Inverse folding.
């Protein structure tokens, strides 16, 4: 759709653009679809762009005159005069709603809102709202804004609606009523224009969110986790006594469409050889931990790797926050639940349930406690376990796993096959996430009372290039994967790895980045070989 048509349909956007041009002398660039690949370095440093996140919500990211990047949500807003009308409309709707059947789902609720709004408004030109007793006179634009506000507040996310609708937001941070920032997938940490009028207003919002999700937050229970409508998890600190700068919360947003493996290759997080190596290992039953510090990209990478699991396999996921998006048909998705005594559902309980559910793959959002022992028992009994864990090296990973409170016996560690390490850093002001190295776990060495490992991939940080150090030296590929795939000459496994790397490179070169499209191509190759692909690849000569 042309920008002119979008502006004509959204008077609030037109007004915003006119005001912004008057104040700055510039007009933002409009993007129908934002992508990390279509933002230039110059635009990243001095952004001035707008993109839609819903039919009537737009986001403007720009460089403020103080040289600070700002995130401005543009949504239909009621003026003070319109708010008076809206208050009367709300009263009439509430009076009428008692005579209506209770909606069974959001779709029925939307229809009811629309019905009652139309019943209690008129497009009469009468300006004095108090002369018409039974209905409120509104313009078409006022009707549209009232409808948006009703739906936002009743079935949506209230003040946070623009932020929750933006798929480019990873986290939302609120400390007190006048400080809401977000972490943007492209632009990093940005201050927003979303504000609560007071701490009282913020507390009311949090209490309402808690009621909707069944979380009883109060001064007596001031720190709670709230599951939001879309599956995102909100951690709330309700009490002013504990949170000295006012009530606070953090939302870890649920991602409807994860990063695909081709996107992460394009971004340089991994290269095609790493992806092909992991593809072979996961497909052939190797268990793996993705390690790294907070926000280093562990879960994003884990999500992309799930495309390497056969579509017919049963996948069991256990998480505290629903971040994993498995593309398999048989996906059992379970979440922890906070509570008292028997009402609590811990990660440990979920993994015990996993072993009884007989899945092919057990995916753990993050290993933190005694559930790790259950995960290792799962590997021993033939399940493939994929998880993330906070650790910056093999040494620290083993220390965490064997130390308290996790306390996995050292001799159990050799049940794990692969440990992959992630790191986040800044390059020319941009946040970049990289796989720094991959270690294969060979086994427990009794003589040294330690674990033997083998480095397979290493990041050259100066050149920002991944080096494959496992050529003719990979314990996993030669000892485990090659035999499972029936290779008489175990070294032939490297030819298969490079062939898969070339397939992934071709997917990247064709700009196929949609998670499910990439997943379909990978699954098609696993079932039909090269004949299952809509393109050909060169006969790969081993490096």
């Amino acid at each position: 759709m042309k920008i002119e048509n979008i502006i004509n349909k959204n008077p609030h956007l037109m007004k915003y653009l006119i005001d912004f041009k008057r104040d700055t002398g510039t007009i933002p660039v409009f993007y129908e679809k934002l992508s990390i690949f279509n933002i230039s370095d110059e635009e990243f440093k001095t952004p001035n762009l707008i993109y839609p996140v819903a039919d009537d919500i737009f986001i403007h990211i720009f460089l403020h005159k103080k040289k600070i990047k700002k995130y401005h949500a543009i949504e239909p807003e009621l003026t003070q005069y319109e708010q008076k009308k809206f208050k009367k409309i709300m009263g009439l709707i509430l009076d009428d709603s008692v005579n209506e059947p209770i909606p069974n789902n959001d779709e029925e609720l939307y229809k009811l809102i629309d019905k009652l709004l139309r019943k209690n408004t008129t497009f009469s030109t009468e300006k004095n709202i108090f002369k018409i007793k039974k209905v409120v006179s509104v313009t078409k634009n006022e009707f549209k804004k009232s409808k948006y506000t009703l739906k936002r507040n009743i079935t949506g996310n209230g003040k946070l609606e623009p932020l929750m609708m933006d798929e480019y937001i990873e986290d939302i941070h609120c400390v007190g009523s006048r400080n809401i920032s977000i972490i943007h997938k492209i632009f990093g940490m940005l201050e927003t224009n979303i504000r609560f009028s007071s701490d009282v207003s913020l507390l009311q919002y949090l209490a309402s969110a808690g009621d909707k999700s069944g979380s009883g937050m109060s001064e007596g229970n001031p720190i709670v986790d709230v599951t939001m409508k879309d599956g995102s998890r909100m951690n709330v600190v309700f009490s002013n006594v504990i949170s000295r700068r006012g009530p606070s919360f953090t939302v870890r947003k649920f991602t409807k469409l994860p990063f695909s493996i081709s996107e992460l290759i394009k971004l340089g997080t991994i290269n095609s050889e790493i992806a092909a190596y992991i593809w072979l290992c996961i497909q052939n039953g190797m268990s793996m931990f993705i390690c790294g510090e907070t926000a280093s990209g562990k879960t994003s990478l884990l999500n992309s790797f799930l495309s390497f699991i056969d579509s017919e396999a049963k996948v069991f996921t256990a998480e505290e926050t629903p971040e994993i998006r498995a593309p398999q048909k048989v996906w059992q998705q379970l979440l922890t639940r906070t509570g008292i005594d028997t009402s609590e559902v811990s990660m440990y309980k979920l993994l015990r349930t996993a072993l009884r559910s007989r899945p092919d793959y057990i995916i753990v959002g993050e290993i933190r406690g005694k559930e790790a022992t259950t995960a290792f028992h799962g590997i021993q009994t033939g399940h493939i376990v994929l998880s993330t864990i906070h650790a910056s090296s093999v040494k620290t990973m083993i220390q965490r796993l064997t130390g308290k409170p996790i306390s996995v016996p050292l001799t159990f560690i050799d049940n794990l096959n692969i440990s992959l390490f992630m790191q986040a850093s800044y390059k020319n002001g941009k946040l970049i996430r990289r796989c720094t190295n991959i270690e294969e776990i060979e086994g427990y060495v009794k003589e040294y009372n330690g674990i033997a490992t083998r480095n397979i991939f290493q990041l050259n940080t100066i050149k920002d290039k991944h080096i494959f150090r496992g050529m003719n030296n990979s314990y996993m590929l030669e000892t485990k994967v090659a035999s499972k795939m029936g290779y008489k000459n175990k070294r032939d496994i490297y030819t298969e790895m490079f062939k898969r790397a070339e397939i992934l490179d071709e997917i990247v070169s064709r700009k196929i980045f949609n998670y499910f499209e990439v997943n379909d191509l990978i699954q098609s190759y696993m079932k039909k070989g090269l004949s299952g692909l809509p393109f050909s690849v060169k006969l790969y000569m081993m490096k």
